[in-house]
Write a structure and sequence with these properties.
The protein is built from 4 helices and 10 strands, in the order ααβββαββββαβββ. It has 229 residues and is α+β, with helices and mostly antiparallel strands. The protein has one domain (50-228).
């Protein structure tokens, strides 16, 4: 009987000792800093080379027009329609009138300085100077083989052509009534009048700081970029 009592006491003491023993601690969690996201590096678009411009003109116009090299500069690049892709503006002269005036040309002919008739009605003349704007497409911008969406602008080629960013345009014309361009603008002087060619409402228009009013902005035909089709 005594042995049983001693054994029972021993068991109880062991149980109490086990209950008071602290649980083993888990190893500490090692903190690892999450890797910082690497900012996307936007590759700068290289400057246009004459041979590349010639290739782009050939791609769109075939033998219908050639670059008018009597102008300096004869071509400019910028994001004129504001879609994030670089476009090419190049001064042309007709080479084959039958192709330039074909019934359904693969480009849109516009008259930005004619606010009453932005869509060109008169055919392109033999010695007419034109400004073609080839919209960029994809990662290669206006150099891409699929970059064929083009506007042909009549009566807008002047002197001192220069690309202006939207911020530069707004700053230079502070206090004036302004249009709402969608991208870069081309500033120039046409027959003594300084102004800007700009893209808005799916067409190209002309801004004269001295005579602009809101009614001059013509909506034009909506010619969707490939990225919107």
């Amino acid at each position: 009987m005594m042995k049983n009592v001693i054994f029972l006491i021993a068991v109880m003491l062991c149980a109490c000792s086990s209950a008071k023993r602290p649980a083993a601690e888990a190893p500490p969690v090692v903190y690892q800093a999450s890797p910082q996201s690497t900012p996307i590096q936007l590759t700068a678009v290289p400057a246009a080379k004459p041979s590349e411009v010639q290739e782009a003109v050939k791609r769109v116009f075939k033998d219908a027009a050639v670059i008018d090299t009597s102008y300096n500069p004869s071509f400019l690049s910028g994001d004129f329609n504001g879609d994030g892709s670089q476009d090419l503006a190049v001064i042309l002269k007709p080479a084959k009138l039958d192709l330039m005036n074909q019934e359904l040309p693969p480009w849109l002919v516009r008259q930005p300085r004619n606010h009453k008739a932005a869509r060109a009605s008169a055919p392109i003349a033999k010695d007419e100077t034109l400004l073609a704007v080839i919209h960029g497409f994809g990662a290669n911008h206006w150099r891409d083989p699929d970059a064929t969406q083009t506007y042909v602008l009549k009566d807008v080629v002047g002197q001192d052509l220069k690309v202006h960013s939207l911020n530069e345009f707004v700053t230079a014309n502070s206090g004036r009534k302004l249009p709402r361009p969608q991208g870069d603008l081309i500033g120039e002087t046409v027959r003594g009048t300084a102004g800007y060619i700009y893209y808005a409402q799916a067409t190209y228009s002309w801004y004269d700081p001295k005579s602009f009013d809101d009614t001059q902005s013509a909506p034009g035909a909506f010619h969707k970029p490939r990225t919107m089709r």
